[in-house]
Amino acid sequence: MVNMVRRQFWLQKIAEAWKTRNVIWFPGVRRAGKTSICRGLENTEYFDCELPRIRRMMDDPERFLGGLKGKQLVLDEIHRLENPSELLKIAADYFPGTRVLATGSSTLGATRKFRDTLTDRKAELWLPPLCLADLGDFLRPDLEARMLRGGLPPFFLPERLPEEGFQEWMDAFWAKDIQELFRLERRHSFLKFVEMILAQSGGIFEATHFAAPCEISRQTVSNYLSVLEATFVAHVIRPYSSRRPAEIVRAPKVYGFDTGFVAYYRNWDRLRQEDRGILWEHLVLNEMHAAGKRRWVRYWRDKQGHEIDFVLVQRGKPPLAVECKWSASDFDGVNLRSFRLLHPQGENLVVASDVSRSYTREFSGMPATYVSLAEFTDRITGKTA
After folding, report:
1. Residue 275: which of 264, 286, 291, 285 has the closest Cα?
2. N or C: which end of the chain has fewer CB within 10 A?
3. What Rg, from alpha-carbon coordinates, does the chain have?
């Protein structure tokens, strides 16, 4: 079923990216659907770099590309090559008429295997778990199921949630991503750290809270977090501030990559009312990632404990404050007022699951616009003002 669905949102993004660069880097966690999207591209030759015979074909990158001049290519799991960036650099510099889409499970700079990050030579699209547009393609617009099962198609789509799949995914992540790319040694400590990150997802990150349970040093905690960030399994959200004394300026928040894994490691087999808020927050973050806003997302907190879930910081624009509420009635404006006393310019959005049409309310003269998840996505992508 997964392979039969054409995920139009991503196919369109790939087509648009190819208009700007002939080489696209298309990373994402394993089983997010990279391969099925790639196989949905028309008039495109597909090469699976997991296969030794395919890797041998690319031993001479210039000859390989020369035989495919002017075509569209998918190089799936290109990190399996000995020097993947060499092939992509040659494609960018010497075969501008050949379109290349390369997939992998990490950032280009995550490992020494990528000796060149191809700055100014590539377009980059990052594939997060299923976004709202994907749910429409799969004809399953069930947000509660998306929160509990997560956004990896093999977990979201089956009638029965394959719970054993979570541990199988984690085992494959260690064996195929961590060992091949980073060659870490302490499997138990690393996987314990991953489980704790997922179970505490969305909270303020304190390295000292992880060191003793994982039996590692504080420096190793920082190293492990960098690995999870490079492989898109954890998202580090740093504070927004103007460095005023009242604001938190250093402590980041860390989110796990997928609501299904967060729910699994919190031992949630069903959603209670009190569980929906934090998972809804993850869904809103996922929409910003799908919209390509990852590098612009911050959060805000002051020393009195007032907090804004997300602050979208775009160059040349005032900060956009984003509050995430499962129910619109849960928003009271107190935290937003504290934020706008220090940062008065910018729009305020409340993203709620029970909003069908946007509307605005004022809190002590401060306007806040309530929007649905779909309208929020349209606003941050510029489809609506």
Report:
1. 264
2. C
3. 21
How far, in Å, CA of 191 to CA of 161, rounded?
22
pLDDT tens sequence across 78-101: 988 988 999 999 999 999 999 999
Residue-wise pLDDT tens digits, 32-52: 999 999 999 999 999 999 999
Q: Is the dihedral of CA 10, 14, 17, 23 positive or negative?
A: positive
Instruction: Specify the pTM.
Output: 0.95
CA 348, CA 170: separation in Å to the nearest integer? 38
